[in-house]
Amino acid sequence: MDTAPPAAQPMLDQEHLRLLSIFHYVKGGISAFFACIPIIHVIIGLILIMAPHLFGQGGNAPPAFLGWFFLLLGGFFVLFGWTFAVLTLLTGWCIARRRHYTFCFIWACVECLSIPFGTALGVCTILVLNRPSVKPLFAPAA
Fold it and tell me: What are the tens digits of pLDDT across the range 83-142?
C-alpha cells in the first residue's frame, strides 16, 4: 500500500513505470538469449537429416524421423522463446510510452507463468497498472 502523500503520487507512478519498462527490457533480452539454447537441437537435427552417416554406418545410422524430431522441436522452442522475448520487449516499450494499457496488463499476466523472474515482474506490473492514478496515464491523447 502506498503511503506517499497525494502530491508525490504522480512522481512515484512515473518512477515505477520507468523501472518496469527497464525491467521488461532486461527480461526480454535475457529471454531472447536463453531461447537460443535449442538452436543446438536444430543443428543436430539438420546433421541427422543431411549426414546420418556421421552418427553410424549402414544399419547403425539413426532413422531420418529422429532428425526431423530434433529439427522441429528445437525450432518450435526457439521460435516460442523469441516470440515471448519480443512481446516482453514490446511491453517494456509500451509502458515507457504509456500506450496499450490492455496489452501491457494481459502480457503481465502471461509473464507470471515464467518462473521466477517473470512472476515477480508480472505481479509488480499488475500491481502498478491497477493503481487508479496510473490508468489515466495510458489514456489516448485528445
Answer: 999 999 999 999 999 999 999 999 999 999 999 999 999 999 999 999 999 999 998 765
The verdict on residue 124 lying in a domain is yes
- Residue closest to 104 by CA, chosen among 122, 80, 118: 122
What whole-number distance in Å separates Cα of residue 22 and Cα of residue 26?
A: 6
pTM of the model: 0.86
Overall domain count for the chain? 1
Read off the C-alpha cell for 60. 547403425
- Phi, psi dihedral angles at 37 (to 5 degrees): -60, -45
Query: What is the extent of the structural domain holding 19?
Result: 10-55+62-135
CA pair distance 47, 37, nearest whole angstrom = 17
